[in-house]
Amino acid sequence: MENIRNFCIIAHIDHGKSTLADRMLELTGTVEMRKMKNQMLDQMDLERERGITIKLQPARMEWKGKILNLIDTPGHVDFTYEVSRSLAAVEGALLLVDATQGVEAQTLANLYLALEQNLEIIPIINKIDLPAADVEKVSQEIVNLLGCKKEEILLASAKTGKGVEKILDAIVEKVSAPKSKEKNLQALIFDSAYDEYRGVVIYVRFFGGQIKKGDKIKFVASAETTEVLDLGFFKPHWVSAKNLADGEIGYLITGVKDLEKAKVGDTIVSLDENTKALTGYKQIKPMVYAGIFPQEGNEYHKLREAILKLKLSDSSLIFEPTSSQALGFGFRCGFLGLLHLEIFQERLKREFNLSLIVTTPTVAYNIYLRNGEKMVLTTPNEMPDPSKIERVDEPYMNIEIISPQKYMGELMEYVISQKGIFKNTQYLDEDRLILSFDIPLASILVDFYDSIKSISSGYASLNYDFSDYRSCEIVKVDILVAELPVEALTSLVYKDEAHRVGKRIVERLKDVLPRQQFVLKLQAAVGGKIIAGERLSALRKDVTAKLYGGDVTRKRKLLDKQKKGKKKMAQVGKVEIPQEAYLAVLKRDQN
Ligand code: GTP
After folding, report:
1. pTM of the predicted protein model
2. What is the pLDDT of residues 499-508, one digit of tens each?
3. Would you say the CB of residue 163 lies under 6 angstroms from ligand 1?
4. Over the chain, what is the mean pLDDT?
5. Considering only CA atoms, which of 5, 3, 8 is closest in space to residue 65?
6. Domain 4-174 is classified in which CATH homologous superfamily?
7. For the chain, what are the domain ranges?
8. If you count Cβ atoms within 10 Å of the first and of the last residue's Cβ in the chain, which end, N or C, has fewer?
9. Is the shortest distance between the CB of 155 and ligand 1 below 6 Å?
10. Residue 381: pLDDT band by 50, 70, 90 thresholds?
């Protein structure tokens, strides 16, 4: 055990985490240089395009007689819980900061989590080969942040390989070896994957005992029992081993078929021993809900298959079948956050070629009813009658925005306009600030990040995590098109904003809906009361224009024909609502 060093890399998006991991694998001879590209960079297009942290495969390397286990920290804030589990599986963290960008919001968020776990932090400034690198300034930021000495900061270029050997040496010297705390088998699940051929593959860190093929094991939280079918190390591909023991990091393949039963954060113990679970297992609750419907009714089964497939590798996704008069059969899905929702939706479209209607996302409201019952409201259409409601609580987030000082005024104004409550400001260096706020999750659901980026010309970065539930006043705003409610456009809004939001939605609808052959009424209503209305005038083609002074019977015939056409539309009673109409409703006010 004294030869093992377990560590992770924490960094903001694009600061060079994957590139550094690649160099390490190369230098330690774990992966041959010519195989490099496919080994580490073979990831989902979507992840690459968006620059969200690509899932690094855990990797076991050897360096100067020591075993170095690198594990990944999922990068995005939606997955903070998984990040904290990853950090719980290691003893040290490389804090990687881009020499041209400096410390960013996500660097901070993950650093705080690493400090909470008492990890040894090794600060590194990366990309020193770039002409725009400002090592002096970034060093000062890191010194201010960590209270470390400037000399302790390693300088590197993951691209050229400069300084990477020193990083490997520092891991050996500074990160402590795992310490034994438990003699029975005790292993933490820090990640899992679904492989088409091998099924559920569980990634574990051992905190006690050992395990070999054929052993009977138990998952403490899910109470599932099973047998170990295979096990091994990450090199970085899966390589079978005889056994895995205390202090090690490796993978297990068991009889478990369902990712639900082997959740990240759960503890694995021996079936015949009563070993305790490691601390920190908690059920992750979805924060954001949306309805997902196929645009073509006959694609329901295809959608269902697709969701089931994605669920295999995404244990935090929650879904249940639902149906709506307007949208037919679909699913109500719960997500950890907006990014989670976006990615899920994109994957359904790209990987399964589905056309979807996604209803306005809504946060999970806790509703306390006068009769003493409590419910979690996840869809606007289930909002109980207001007279039955005692109180509604909504989720609040802590947010941190790191920005150059010159955008501070405008950022403050914007966040406060979105119901943000200012907490404090901290200086990162002379011209960069950390602004902290509490803000309703509902405020940051749509457009918030884009607005922060546009106000700061792209310089500000944002991080958020769940804070608490606070009371609020919400009402359900229905949207009626041709006097019929359009379920997918119903939304829950703050009572004091209902008029404004209702008005804005019908105005936008007027702009995006195609004109019909009859006058189209567009209305917003709260509790049956119309609060805003617009009329979209009819598209009346003068079919008789060409018949100037002509034959009356022909004229009547044409008019009759037109009338018939109108009747058909009216009979359908449903106006085709294009996808951009739904999007228009999602967009919030920019002022
Ligand atoms: P995500 O996986 O998207 O979170 O980013 P990451 O932190 O893993 O960063 P990645 O390794 O993908 O690097 C981001 C970009 O920076 C890539 O275009 C790299 O080629 C580039 N890069 C990484 N390290 C260096 C470096 O030391 N010097 C230079 N010039 N470019 C670098």
Report:
1. 0.73
2. 998 998 899 8
3. no
4. 83
5. 3
6. P-loop containing nucleotide triphosphate hydrolases (3.40.50.300)
7. 4-174, 186-270, 288-359, 367-472, 475-586
8. C
9. no
10. confident
